């Protein structure tokens, strides 16, 4: 198994990066959260990796944090969940939010946030991951896990913001307006920051 790769970031897009390590270029699939954390092209970068092996394909997946990689691997362990759906789940919400949705058995949030997940799949995720995510260490982000913040982030993403920039803008808006602000004011304040 390849634990991590460290080298020059040759190219990046929201789905795939090319990393040159000792003269070899690796094509690595990444979630949006990792893409948002990447430096400019040409910079040195280190990505934790997961090599996914199928009989007709070897694909490399890269992550900025151990929590992202751990959740990705947990998702792959759920029946009928493949790498594409696991990446969409990571792109849809933070690891802390996903953990909270599983522990709270919040089927509606899972369905609305992750494209391709219906009621049956959301329930299967909750059943199969409930015990596993309890041990997943995540940094708490209290304001980012509130319903208002989650809804405001979704609104900004639907307007074309990347998940990472939407989360940063919403956190800054909540910090300025206070924790009791409603979704409409949070979204307006987040948009005014651009």
Describe the secondary structure blueprint for this structure:
Elements: E1 4-12, E2 16-21, E3 24-29, H1 32-37, E4 44-54, E5 57-63, H2 66-76, H3 83-92, H4 95-103, H5 107-113, H6 119-134, H7 147-158, H8 163-177, H9 183-192
Helix pairs in contact: 2-3, 4-6, 5-6, 7-8, 7-9, 8-9
Question: How would you describe this protein?
Answer:
The protein is α+β, with helices and mostly antiparallel strands and 194 residues long. It folds into 3 domains: 4-63, OB fold (Dihydrolipoamide Acetyltransferase, E2P), CATH 2.40.50.140; 66-134, DNA polymerase, domain 1 (Orthogonal Bundle), CATH 1.10.150.20; 142-192, Helicase, Ruva Protein, domain 3, CATH 1.10.8. It contains 9 helices and 5 strands; from the N terminus they run E-E-E-H-E-E-H-H-H-H-H-H-H-H. Helix 2 packs across helix 3 (83-92), helix 4 packs across helix 6 and helix 7 crosses helix 8 (163-177). It is globular. The termini are far apart. The model is unreliable at 141-145 (pLDDT under 50).
In short:
With 194 residues, the chain is an alpha+beta fold. Helices cover 49% and strands 20% of the residues. The protein folds into three domains: 60 residues, Nucleic acid-binding proteins (OB fold (Dihydrolipoamide Acetyltransferase, E2P)); 69 residues, DNA polymerase, domain 1; 51 residues, Helicase, Ruva Protein, domain 3, CATH 1.10.8.
Q: Under CATH, the topology of the largest domain is which? A: DNA polymerase, domain 1
Helix content: 40-55%
Classify the secondary structure makeup into a structural class. alpha+beta
Number of domains: 3
Radius of gyration based on Cα positions: 17 Å
In whole angstroms, how far apart are the ends?
42 Å
Low-confidence stretches: 141-145
